[in-house]
Write a structure and sequence with these properties.
With 197 residues, the chain is α+β, with helices and mostly antiparallel strands. The chain contains 4 helices and 8 strands; from the N terminus they run αββαββββββαα. The chain has a single domain, classed as 2-Layer Sandwich (Alpha-D-Glucose-1,6-Bisphosphate, Chain A, domain 4). The chain has helices at residues 2-22, 46-59, 146-149, 152-177, and strands at 26-27, 33-40, 66-72, 77-89, 94-109, 112-127, 133-135, 141-142. Residues 35-120 form the DUF4468 domain. This is DUF4468 domain-containing protein.
């Protein structure tokens, strides 16, 4: 009995580690970080998924976090750009350390879609003379080069925050893709009687 429990525990830990590895930033074919997901959406045609994806890109977030910029109805693809602020703790409080911009690509087919985040660009921040943290002009670099430009702890923090942002946006996207509109009821319009006030 103990052996069965131990084997089951080892199998559970291995499957958990495989799942955790698939939900992280990976290095893609072009040697850039990528966050990639394929989602099955049974019984939904591609045009419905396309319309829901378009609604997500236009309505889910503000333009500073996710900005829709290109749609191709023939190829069923949607593109957007976005960004996330990376904060760092100083002695007194948290402050912005950098912003990381990214590209989001969605491809849709019948009963499934895929999306990926890529082209992560770091824009470091510095304190200006008014004690505000502002982007440093001309110092942008790809996130892949962060291991040479940042210390190890900061670099891991950047990767963690970017991965968490990708996961959050992906979760919001999935909720938009599963959305079922409620049937609309005919509303009676109340007549305005100008004599009564």
């Amino acid at each position: 009995m103990k052996r069965i429990v131990i084997v089951a525990l080892i199998m559970a830990l291995k499957s958990a580690s495989v799942f955790a590895q698939s939900d992280t930033l990976l290095i893609g074919e072009n040697q850039k970080f990528i966050y990639y997901q394929v989602v099955s959406q049974p019984d939904l045609p591609a045009d419905t998924l396309y319309n829901r994806g378009l609604l997500f890109l236009q309505k889910a977030y503000g333009k500073d976090r996710l900005k829709f910029f290109k749609a191709d109805k023939a190829k069923l693809t949607l593109n957007a750009t976005g960004g996330v602020l990376v904060s760092k703790r100083s002695m007194i409080a948290m402050h912005e350390d950098a912003s990381v911009s990214f590209n989001l690509v969605m491809e849709l087919k019948d009963s499934r879609y895929r999306y990926w985040f890529t082209d992560f660009i770091v824009s470091p921040y510095e304190r200006d003379r008014y004690a505000n943290y502002v982007p440093v002009a001309g110092k942008n670099y790809p996130l892949e080069k962060g291991s040479t430009k940042l210390n190890e702890q900061d670099y891991k923090g950047y990767l963690t925050m970017v991965t968490a942002n990708c996961r959050d946006v992906g979760t919001m996207l999935k909720s938009y893709m599963q959305f079922k509109a409620a049937p609309q009821k005919d509303k009676k319009k109340n007549a305005v009687v100008p004599k009564e006030w």
